């Protein structure tokens, strides 16, 4: 298909890719001044009503779920020749398949991607839908205020769970599809998607998809040093016997998240495992060492955790937070400061695994809350604070920030809680921060404070 000038009001810029059933174009919505991706049914399927129905059903599912973890459909229309097209989110950072091709990913990054992919599939399962074609090229990446956003895409093979019994044709991609998907009348359920999640996990970790089932080689044999729990999880997801797999995408995702939260998670792969052909890859090694130096400088004292910068424009506030906590991002969120004596909540920036549960007395939400308050705000006088016990108090002087940190190493069995009131000498205003984390890491609290700036 030659490049068209426009689809309705959307001006076409270039082709992004094409498959058996559709072509995807990058276009510009000149009315809203925003880039979009437009998926158009291929010409050879224009008169196949079942294919057209499947195409439109994909759009309906994505529109009805309307999730942060799925590609969004903004509009649907029909070309003069009768072919439907859908206007979708443009993923400006490519796909997870592109990441795999660039080289081995840090384990923390792998687990972040798996967590977010799993959340997208969980949304589909809660909607009563099986994806049936989960693979790295069907997971897209988009820029966002907290770094990188994962978007599950391409629901062309998706089916209702209620219709999953007795599929008459195989559907999916070899290497990622469950054994029962290749059998006509395979009586599928959500555990078919769990198998595909296990296959994607295997490839993200090792750089290659798993072998044909039964898969007997754990990813840790290809990439030594993995947590045993991760090997166990992936092999169970890839089990031929679906009764041995995690029950659904949520169960799989929760276990990935638990592994990622472990304080002893390996931070990086030893260089001798990463570069098995040093004479052919000397240049790559030198570049990686340069990048590693910058990364260590930016995240010293934070083993196993990658940091990302979030911004609160209203207060000109920037804070570096662990990427693992950046599941939900809110600005202007009103929180009662645990170290404050006032009765009014302060609007600020909140990045957390569960923003709604942040202020609960029995929260397992981990993240960072930060705000800028006047110097006379009256911070201090914490009493027992949010944890029912007196805090440890210490003075902080990083050379840039001075102030006080109050810490509760154990907070009602939900990890640790820290609050801090810091200021820059000679600069008006006090930055108040709260940090909730699964373990007691005062070094990480200091690193977050060091990565904070107001300008």
TrEMBL record:
<keyword id="KW-0808">Transferase</keyword>
<feature type="domain" description="Protein kinase">
    <location>
        <begin position="10"/>
        <end position="265"/>
    </location>
</feature>
<keyword id="KW-0547">Nucleotide-binding</keyword>
<dbReference type="InterPro" id="IPR017441">
    <property type="entry name" value="Protein_kinase_ATP_BS"/>
</dbReference>
<dbReference type="GO" id="GO:0005524">
    <property type="term" value="F:ATP binding"/>
</dbReference>
<keyword id="KW-0067">ATP-binding</keyword>
<feature type="binding site">
    <location>
        <position position="39"/>
    </location>
    <ligand>
        <name>ATP</name>
    </ligand>
</feature>
<dbReference type="InterPro" id="IPR000719">
    <property type="entry name" value="Prot_kinase_dom"/>
</dbReference>
<dbReference type="Pfam" id="PF00069">
    <property type="entry name" value="Pkinase"/>
</dbReference>
<protein>
    <recommendedName>
        <fullName>non-specific serine/threonine protein kinase</fullName>
        <ecNumber>2.7.11.1</ecNumber>
    </recommendedName>
</protein>
<dbReference type="InterPro" id="IPR011009">
    <property type="entry name" value="Kinase-like_dom_sf"/>
</dbReference>
<keyword id="KW-0418">Kinase</keyword>
<keyword id="KW-0723">Serine/threonine-protein kinase</keyword>
<dbReference type="GO" id="GO:0004674">
    <property type="term" value="F:protein serine/threonine kinase activity"/>
</dbReference>
């Amino acid at each position: 298909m030659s490049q068209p000038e426009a689809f309705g009001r959307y001006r076409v810029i270039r082709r992004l890719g094409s498959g058996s059933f559709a072509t995807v174009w990058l276009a510009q919505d000149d009315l809203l001044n925003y880039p979009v991706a437009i998926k158009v049914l291929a010409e050879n399927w224009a008169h196949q009503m079942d294919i057209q129905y499947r195409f439109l059903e994909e759009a309906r599912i994505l529109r009805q779920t309307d999730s942060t973890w799925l590609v969004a459909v903004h509009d649907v229309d029909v070309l003069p020749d009768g072919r439907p097209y859908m206007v979708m989110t443009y993923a400006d950072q490519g796909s997870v398949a592109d990441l795999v091709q660039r080289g081995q990913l840090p384990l923390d990054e792998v687990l972040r991607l798996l967590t977010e992919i799993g959340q997208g599939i969980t949304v589909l399962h809660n909607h009563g839908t099986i994806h049936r074609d989960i693979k790295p090229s069907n997971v897209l990446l988009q820029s966002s205020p907290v770094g990188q956003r994962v978007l599950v895409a391409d629901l062309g093979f998706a089916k209702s769970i209620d219709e999953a019994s007795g599929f008459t044709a195989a559907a999916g991609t070899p290497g990622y599809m469950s054994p029962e998907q290749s059998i006509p009348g395979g009586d599928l359920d959500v555990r078919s998607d769990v198998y595909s999640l296990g296959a994607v996990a295997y490839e993200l970790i090792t750089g290659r998809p798993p072998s044909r089932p039964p898969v007997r080689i754990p990813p840790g044999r290809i990439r030594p040093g993995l947590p045993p729990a991760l090997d166990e999880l992936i092999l169970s997801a890839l089990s031929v016997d679906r009764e041995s797999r995690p029950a659904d995408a949520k169960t799989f995702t929760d276990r990935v998240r638990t592994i990622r939260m472990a304080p002893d998670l390996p931070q990086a792969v030893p260089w001798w495992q990463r570069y098995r052909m040093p004479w052919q890859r000397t240049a790559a090694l030198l570049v990686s060492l340069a990048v590693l130096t910058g990364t260590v400088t930016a995240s010293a004292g934070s083993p196993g955790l990658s940091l990302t910068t979030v911004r609160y424009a209203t207060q000109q506030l920037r804070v570096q937070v662990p990427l693992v906590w950046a599941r939900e991002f809110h600005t202007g969120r009103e929180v009662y400061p645990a170290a404050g004596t006032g009765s009014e909540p302060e609007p600020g920036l909140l990045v957390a695994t569960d923003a709604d549960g942040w202020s609960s007395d029995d929260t397992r939400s981990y993240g960072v809350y930060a705000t800028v308050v006047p110097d006379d705000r009256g911070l201090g006088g914490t009493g027992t604070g949010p944890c029912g016990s007196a805090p440890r108090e210490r003075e902080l002087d990083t050379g840039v920030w001075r102030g006080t940190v109050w810490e509760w190493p154990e907070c009602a069995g939900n990890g640790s809680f820290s609050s801090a009131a810091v200021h820059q000498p000679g600069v008006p205003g006090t930055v108040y921060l709260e940090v909730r984390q699964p373990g007691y890491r005062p070094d990480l609290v200091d690193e977050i404070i060091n990565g904070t700036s107001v300008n």
